[in-house]
Amino acid sequence: VAISSLPVLLLELKCNNPASHEETFNIIVRPESLFANEVQSCRASGYSGVMNTYHQLTCNSETQWKNGELIIPISTKAYEQKTFHILLTCYDDNWISVNQFKNVGEITDYTHKVWSMLKEVTTLFGKAIPKTEDAVLDNYLRWYIIPAISLTKCTKNNEVLTMGYRELNQRDSYWTSWLHLVLFKDAERKMIEESIAYQQPSGKIPTTILPLIERNDDLDINAFFILRATRFYQYYHNKDELASHWSALKKAMDWLLARDCSGDGIPCQVSFWGDWKDVRGVEERKYSPFFSLIYLAALKQMIWLSSESDDEASHRNYEAAYQKGYDFINKSVEEGGLWNGNYYCQRWKDGTINNRLLQDQTIGILFDVIPLDKAQSIVNSLNTMSLTPYGIAETFPYYPVNWGYVPATYHNGAVWPWLSFMDCWARLRIGKTQEAIDLVKRVANADLVASGDWSPNEHINSLTGQNLGFQLQGWNAGLFGLVYFGLIHPDIIP
């Protein structure tokens, strides 16, 4: 296991001299703040560089350290080619590698020795990544799965998680781990089992685990857990595993059912921790399209799983709950529902309606819990009202600046890549294939190319295209699910 989860970054450079004379130059590696203090030179058989207690930067060549830069002098004779291995090694006291290596130097030494093997398996992994007939889309996919790999954490206690920031959040991890579902089955199973192990007696799946953070009121966490366990069964068809998960799934669903405090058929938001839009500007919300629709999606899957589990009582219970919630949200706003004639709206606790258009309601299209005519109307509204040069503004019209966030940023109308890919996958579901692919490319270009960083960012200013928030966002890797299950194998997961 340690071989497949080494805390290392490998860079292989080939320097080819096409000239008839010798060429000399320097390769300069600037590791920013990793080596700000306590830096010392290191040298071993076949490589040199610098190190401190937790990091080591080396190359299979002579090196110099000067002014915070690792300088690698290069000299190539006429027509000569040389290959250089530049290695950044990290040491984490909690990482699984501590079970095999005592310090950062041992990891560095091991990695240099098995470089060719690591290159080979990395190449094979690259070949396992699905391809479409669209080279641009394929290229974007490869960049977007990087955080799915980079943010997969394997601890010395044999825990596995895809990190939101440093923890397993069902919401983030659901989108991050489509790759794991297909290519890392054991890791995905492990994360489901860990989630069950942390389930509260009430049925609540904690907001995050590893470490444990509980906000008590989030409504989508349990739903994402249900959707995650369901897709695992849909992909691998193991009834014994479903049977072992079934009790936890029912407890998770029943917790959601109990949150229907008004008897309308939909869970009520209590605090601003209702769903992914967890900001103070929506703390007075009672119903949102996103958590209402993901609740229906979870119920729909539980109805099916009840049949697979021969649980007739649960099937009847969940079917009745689904119909009640479905009928409620599809009533017009004048009748007390959430439909305003063009798209679903937010309803506040005082009964007022917020008619801003939210992109996140496309989750209902993705999971087929919205009538087709309404799905078409939602997408048309997004295209008409919310489309920007950089993608769909997740909220439109923007709130004024005194709402708490600058217009076109964060939860006030930014373009979020993970959300955009969910939207695009939903469009595939209703036959808008080229439109979906074009929108993926629009967002990816703004996120990766135009920004110049080729790093998946949290969100994009929908007026300026500026990349904002933390980069290397795991849930942006949800593009893998879109490509693999939306384009290449659309019939595997219903």
Automatic annotation (TrEMBL):
**Entries under SUPFAM superfamilies matching the protein:** Six-hairpin glycosidases (SSF48208)
Query: This chain belongs to which protein, by name?
Result: Glycosyl-hydrolase family 116 catalytic region domain-containing protein
Q: Name one Pfam family in it.
A: DUF608
UniProt record, GO biological process: carbohydrate metabolic process
Task: Give the Glycosyl-hydrolase family 116 catalytic region domain ranges.
Answer: 220-367
Which PANTHER family does the record cross-reference, listed alphabetically? ALPHA-L-RHAMNOSIDASE SIX-HAIRPIN GLYCOSIDASE DOMAIN-CONTAINING PROTEIN, C, PUTATIVE (AFU_ORTHOLOGUE AFUA_3G02880)-RELATED
Q: Which GO terms describe its molecular function?
A: hydrolase activity, hydrolyzing O-glycosyl compounds
